[in-house]
Write a structure and sequence with these properties.
Oligomer: single chain
Mean pLDDT: 93
Structural class: mainly alpha
Low-confidence stretches: none
Radius of gyration: 57 Å
Helix content: over 70%
Number of helices: 2
């Protein structure tokens, strides 16, 4: 029994050691993967630093021949110019939008005024037609008036003749 017990304990210990060993190997593999990823990242960053080192040299040369005393001043000036450029673009966009709105309003106003002008032209045409009709009516009314005056003159003359005749008869 003791041997079985010892064997069981030894087996459990061996299983635990295998599990620990597998866990350690797994951790080692993960650590190796992380190390490889970090090495790749380090290499990329080194390549990038080397690639951009010409800019550092360029900025140093710019500082030597310009009014700036330090590279930070050049970078600060650049950032200021970028911000100003962005602000100008936004301002330009706002002005463009305002201009488009003004154009739309102007177009609407022009359409309204054209409609109003068209309405006045139609009204003018109607008035002109009425005027022409009135002109043509004037001739017929003048003719009727002349006829009425002639008739009145005849009747007045006839009345005068009748009055004279009656007066003569009376006398």
């Amino acid at each position: 029994q003791e041997n079985d017990k010892m064997r069981m304990l030894a087996l459990k210990k061996a299983i635990r050691e295998r599990e620990n060993k597998m866990q350690k190997e797994s951790e080692l593999l993960r650590a190796k993967g992380k190390l490889e990823a970090l090495r790749n990242k380090h290499q990329k960053l080194c390549n990038r630093v080397q690639k951009h080192s010409i800019f550092s040299k360029y900025l140093e040369d710019v500082v030597k021949i310009s009014q700036f005393e330090e590279i930070r001043e050049v970078i600060s000036r650049y950032k200021t110019l970028v911000r100003m450029h962005k602000d100008l673009l936004q301002s330009q966009q706002r002005h463009k939008e305002m201009s488009e709105q003004a154009k739309v309003l102007l177009d609407q106003y022009m359409e309204e005024k054209e409609a109003e002008i068209l309405q006045y032209k139609n009204e003018l045409v109607q008035l002109q037609l009425r005027f022409d009709q009135a002109q043509s009516d004037i001739l017929s009314w003048e003719t009727r008036w002349a006829d009425i005056q002639n008739t009145t003159a005849k009747k007045t003359q006839e009345l005068g003749t009748i009055k004279l005749t009656i007066l003569n008869l009376f006398q």
